[in-house]
Amino acid sequence: MAGAVVESSETALRRATVITGLGLLVQLGSSLHWTPITFVLSAAFGLPLVLVGAGLFLRTVLRVMKDKGAL
Known about the structure:
mainly alpha; 2 helices
């Protein structure tokens, strides 16, 4: 019997923080020596990681608000 995996809010927030932090580190590292290649790395890897992390954070916050009856 397959059951749904329920992730705790703390774990979900931690995962969102790590993904966003990795994206910001990629962008920061790219900005230290700005060349066309580092710009592409920043845009192709850093920005999507930040956006995914922000999306995960928003999803977790909305789920917690729904569970607490705030929505």
